[in-house]
Automatic annotation (TrEMBL):
Keywords: Antibiotic resistance, ATP-binding, Nucleotide-binding, Transport. Belongs to the ABC transporter superfamily. Pfam families: ABC_tran (PF00005). The keyword 4Fe-4S does not apply. It is found in: Cell membrane. PROSITE patterns: ABC_TRANSPORTER_2 (PS50893). The keyword DNA-binding does not apply. SUPFAM superfamilies: P-loop containing nucleoside triphosphate hydrolases (SSF52540). This is ABC transporter domain-containing protein. It is a peripheral membrane protein. Its main location: membrane. SMART domains: AAA. InterPro entries: AAA+_ATPase, ABC_transporter-like_ATP-bd, ABC_transporter_ATP-binding, P-loop_NTPase.
Length: 242
């Protein structure tokens, strides 16, 4: 079966630095896959490439088997995403921001209203839907971003540090939501620094180090945090010996 999302041989140079150095990654149907790595490892850059927000210097990005270039905006619209700015228009209400995102995905906001209501309830966001985003706390803005990314039940979702700033109740609700989406066949790529959370929700965790995937861990088999540190330390040791 064709993968939902494939990144192959991705190379990116930014500001004279090699940020991604031949990154390969495959997201299967119904899979929750995570990218972990130290600050600056290239996680956000990889997601931006996956979404067609950044053109790689080399390599290919395939969405459901089709190269996303030369129409990256189309691919971007087909994928649920939250990378960098959770809610784009601070003067608009949370609901208007969410509706804008739904329209960006080519859907009718009224058709997605029940789903927005369900996600808002689950994430504890109902009371804030009609407030301007500029008045919302950081965690509440994050919820706006998550609802915007998931309201249209995307076949592929790409989420950068989705649980940042969420309260514990919202973290649990978000985890349930990811599992529900994956159970329906959606594929989800996330980044996070929260290993406990990743161990609970991910099917596979890729360790990104200096722009390359150096290991893939199945979290239910092993202590994720320990394997991460061992893998990164061993890679650095090898580099020093060269
Ligand atoms: N526009 C840019 N110009 C130059 N360098 C950049 C640019 N964007 C990112 N970088 C560099 O690319 C590297 C990877 O950044 P990226 O944001 O992808 O890392 P990350 O793994 O997401 O980090 P973090 O865990 O801190 O979020 C960093 O060294 C960063 O400084």
């Amino acid at each position: 079966m064709t993968a939902a999302l494939t990144l192959s041989g991705i190379q990116v140079r930014l500001g004279g630095c090699e940020v991604l150095r031949g990154l390969d990654l495959e997201l299967s149907h119904g899979q929750i896959r995570a990218l972990v790595g130290l600050n600056g490892a290239g996680k956000t850059t990889a997601l931006r490439v996956a979404l067609g927000m950044l053109r790689p210097d080399a390599g290919h990005v395939l969405l459901h088997g089709q190269d996303i270039w030369p129409s990256p905006a189309e691919a971007w619209c087909r994928v649920g995403h939250m990378v960098e700015t959770p809610a784009a228009y601070p003067e608009l209400t949370a609901r208007a921001n969410i509706d804008n995102a739904i329209m960006l995905h080519g859907m009718d906001p009224s058709g997605c209203a029940p789903r927005v209501a369900q996600l808002s309830r689950a994430l504890g966001m109902e009371a804030h839907l009609d407030q301007p985003v500029r008045r919302l706390s950081l965690g509440t803005r994050q919820k706006v971003g998550l609802i915007s990314a998931l309201a249209h039940e995307p076949s592929v979702a790409v989420l950068d540090e989705p649980t940042n700033g969420l309260d514990p109740l919202a973290v649990v609700a978000f985890r349930d939501e990811l599992r529900r989406l994956a159970g329906q066949g959606s594929s989800i790529l996330i980044t996070s620094h929260h290993f406990d959370e990743l161990a609970r929700v991910s099917d596979a965790v890729d360790v990104l180090h200096h722009g390359q995937v150096i290991a893939t861990i199945t979290p239910d088999e092993r202590d994720l945090e320990k394997v991460f540190f061992d893998t990164v330390l061993a890679a650095d040791q090898q580099l020093q010996e060269i």
